Amino acid sequence: MEICDLALKRRIENGTIDGPKIFTTGDILFPAGAPRGRFRVANPADAVAATTTLLDGGADAIKVYAQAFWDLSLKLPPNVLAAVVGTAHRRNVPVFAHPSNRDGLYNAVDAGVDVLVHTTPQIGPWGNELVARMKASHIALIPTLKLWRFELVREKVPEPGIEAFQRRGIAQLREYHSAGGTILFGTDVGYMTDFSTLEEFQKMSEAGMGFRDILTSLTTAPAERRGLGTRSGKVAVGFDADLVVLGTDPARSVDAFADVAYTIRGGRVIYRATRP
């Protein structure tokens, strides 16, 4: 899928098809021993080579499985994570990490990754010490709370178990948001086959995020993370005319964020919702 993202990005940028701006990591870096993946890195030299190959190929960021969710014995050692981060940061490129569990989370934070992709409901509360370290390191969090329902439904977990697992993820988001940590919106759509964003907005609201907080996670926060804060992320004179127009008011209900009426890129409508 990641290779397809790069190909799709090139087609949009050269005008072959309409589409939004795509920022992609390309292929994920997997721990050695993983049963899949183009890049399975066992040591710092592997990490440097894989990271360099991806960036030379057009990736805008690097993504790693700090720990594999399907086999917790598979994890990137601290020196390998450090090599990835060091190589990416020397080229001014951020690193995204799937923490998956405790070791992946702490190793990713220690290595200085920029973005944690997913909460970790498996391990319960993060606690003040870890949250403070994450915030001091300016780590952003993409919660992907809807993902947990998608995964557990697929595994035929009973509804009470799904709700309990999701609540732990919501609590971790509440911890980090309450501490002033940066939150970025994300869903794992593409891996998930249910494309609706509604549940994600609702769960973010349950974690204590108001409509302005969620709006920030969709606009100014990611623009600043990408170094685009001087021309993207808000409506202002001289900024890119890249807009999403909602059909209803999110100040009344955060459900409105899922009610997209138009998507506009460069002042041109590239998506128009079909309405009754």
Could you explain the architecture of this structure?
The chain has 276 residues and is of the alpha/beta class. The chain has a single domain (2-233), classed as Metal-dependent hydrolases (TIM Barrel, Alpha-Beta Barrel). It contains 10 helices and 10 strands. It has a 5-stranded parallel β-sheet. Helix 2 runs parallel beside helix 3, helix 3 (78-90) crosses helix 4 (102-111) and helix 6 runs antiparallel to helix 7 (159-178). The longest helix is centred in the middle third of the chain and has 20 residues, at 159-178. The mean pLDDT is 93.
Please compute the radius of gyration using only Cα atoms: 19 Å
Proper CATH architecture? Alpha-Beta Barrel
Biggest sheet descriptor? 5 strands, parallel
* Fold-level CATH name: TIM Barrel
Averaging pLDDT over every residue, what do you get?
93
The tally of domains stands at 1
Please identify the structural class as seen in this structure. alpha/beta
